[in-house]
Amino acid sequence: MPLFLDGIDTIALIIEVLGVAIIVGGFAITSWRFLHHRMFHEQRAFMHYRHGIARSLILGLDFLIAGDIIKTVIIVNTGQQVATLGVIVLIRAFLAFTLHVEVEGHWPWQDSRYKNASSNGRRDTND
């Protein structure tokens, strides 16, 4: 059993490292693309930069949450650890939620039809 738990701990650590790498790599790639854009002072280029950083943060947070869940639920499942995980997941989920609204411009439960309809001045009644 200790070998199994060591394997799970290693897998959780790898997932968390991937999450950090996604955040750092996404920030670096997005920053490089922004600085090498021909007209990086334009508003449109800045919005692409913000969206790129937010997307890498959202994806990285998902990996970090997955690693925390695996580690806490399977390896260390004391009441205090589970409560701490719950708070961490709530904070990270709130961050991912607000970043999603910032990037997409609409609530997560609304699909792209709402965004297209509202930009044309009318709402889709199917939502």
Automatic annotation (TrEMBL):
Keywords: Membrane, Transmembrane, Transmembrane helix. The keyword Membrane applies. Signal peptide: none annotated. This is DUF1622 domain-containing protein. The keyword Transmembrane applies. The chain crosses the membrane at residues 12-35, 56-76, 82-103. It comes from Billgrantia tianxiuensis. PANTHER family: SLL0939 PROTEIN. Pfam families: DUF1622.
